[in-house]
Fold this sequence. Notes:
It is a single chain. Helices cover 50% and strands 3% of the residues. By secondary structure, the protein is mainly α. The protein has 2 domains: 1-87, Multidrug-efflux Transporter Regulator, Chain: A, Domain 2 (Orthogonal Bundle); 99-153, no CATH class. A hairpin with a 5-residue loop joins strand 1 and strand 2. The chain is elongated, with a radius of gyration of 22 Å. It binds FE2/S2 (inorganic) cluster (FES).
Amino acid sequence: MGRIKPQEHGKQLTVGEVARRSGVAVSTLHFYETKGLIQSARNQGNQRRYPREVLRRVAIIKVAQRAGIPLASIRDALSVLPQGRTPTAADWKKLSAGWKKDLDDRIAKLIGLRDQLNDCIGCGCLSVKSCPLRNPWDKLSEQGPGPRLLDPT
Length: 153
Ligand code: FES
């Protein structure tokens, strides 16, 4: 994204301009719009026009997607920001802190899965009774009653 020229302040962008400046395909921008991540307005010729702040929103969406955050979660997080306001550094700090926790949780689950897989490599039994990958609930039930994990999948 380049520097904003003074004459561009308040300028509405076409979908092609947003695509060019953000590096995101027009079809992806339309997809984001159908999912409620970004919004456009129609001009008098019934063509979509986007406020400039959409560029920062699209940048945030791309970064979050790279971190593996589901689009629905990104939409929920962005929904607290008023449309038409450029997400600020404080907004970003709050959003990214929440996503870092999601990422940490997923990494911890993946490490657990990798360690279980280590035990299974070379075994191949895939036993419903004893294989932790095949039946994590049985293994967890050995630890006592009640929910042992929030998401054993
Ligand atoms: S394959 Fe045997 S314990 Fe998982």
